[in-house]
Amino acid sequence: MAPQSRDLLKDSIKEGTRENQHRFQLDRIKVSWTAILTLAHFMYLLVGAIIFQILEREAESNSRNHFQLEKLNFLANYTCLDGPALEKFVKVFHGILRRFNGIYGNSTNPSNWDFSSSFFFAGTVVTTIGYGNLSPSTMSGQVFCVFYALCGIPLNLAFLKQAGKCLTVHLGRLKRGMVSVLPYKTLAVSLFFISGSLLFLVIPPLLFSYVEGWTFSEGFYFAFITLSTIGFGDYVVGTDPDKEYIALYRSLAGIWIIFALAWLALILNMAARVIEIVAVLTYPGLKTQEAEEDVSEDVSSGSKGRSEKTSNMENI
């Protein structure tokens, strides 16, 4: 082999090695950033759960005791039920029930502000689901909830965005086009959709239906209303006072919500891109119109910048 050919081969090998090292460093940075966001997100939920538990659990316990005392007084003092007595009892009952979900049960019933429930509540705050069945009642809890949401919602959005990027990267060329004439890309999209649907929209509703005593349609309804962040609050897991749940039941449900939201956000983004592609294929003039609008915006912004520069020079 000639010396010149050997030099070219060495240079190409060095260049390829540098490219691989650079790619490896970028992948490591992406993984590190994803790990940092994931850790920060769950640490934020853990801290929020602990603080909400500290702020609200005592108030809930006091309200439960107050309700039990009112009930005992009612039963002891009113042997013959009359209108005013019933109205007073119903008023007390309604006021407490409106502020605390499920405190009308016995004092031995699980707290709505134990760690698992607080973790679940923190997840519904940062994801903006907001079922409405449980909310802070103390002033300190309400103030903390406001600032917790102000910081937690952007963190959750950043986490979902990064999780969506990771899913897209692992799907390879799906990043360049969701719909293509190449069969393997369409197959990859189908497999991604089917596997995600099974993992997030089929298996969890089955488990919820089994634990809560719902039908599958009710479990699926709860899952979709939750993941779409509509959050009506008519179906919420872990709220039946007559059932005994495992300690981490609602915490696991909160973790399911976080990761399922990332998957559903990517699916909705893919659907939006498909609609855009179909619209462009159906009406080819739309793409030309968008390009013309972009050019006109660039020209107007450029002329505005030049005019501002000219006025500044004249002022000088």
TrEMBL record:
Segments passing through the bilayer: 31-55, 141-160, 181-207, 219-237, 249-272
GO biological process, one term: stabilization of membrane potential
Sorted UniProt keywords: Ion channel, Ion transport, Membrane, Potassium, Potassium channel, Potassium transport, Transmembrane, Transmembrane helix, Transport
Family annotation (InterPro entries): 2pore_dom_K_chnl, 2pore_dom_K_chnl_TASK, K_chnl_dom
Membrane topology according to the record: Multi-pass membrane protein
Biased composition (Basic and acidic residues): 305-316
Segments forming domain Potassium channel: 100-168, 196-275
Pfam family of the protein (one): Ion_trans_2
Region Disordered, residue ranges: 291-316
Top-level taxonomic group: Eukaryota
Keyword Transmembrane part of the UniProt annotation: yes
A cellular component annotation (GO) from this entry: plasma membrane
Gene Ontology molecular-function annotations: outward rectifier potassium channel activity; potassium ion leak channel activity
Subcellular location: Membrane
Family: Belongs to the two pore domain potassium channel (TC 1.A.1.8) family.
Protein name as it appears in the record: Potassium two pore domain channel subfamily K member 16
Organism per entry: Echeneis naucrates (Live sharksucker)
Lineage: Eukaryota, Metazoa, Chordata, Craniata, Vertebrata
Gene, per the UniProt record: LOC115036154
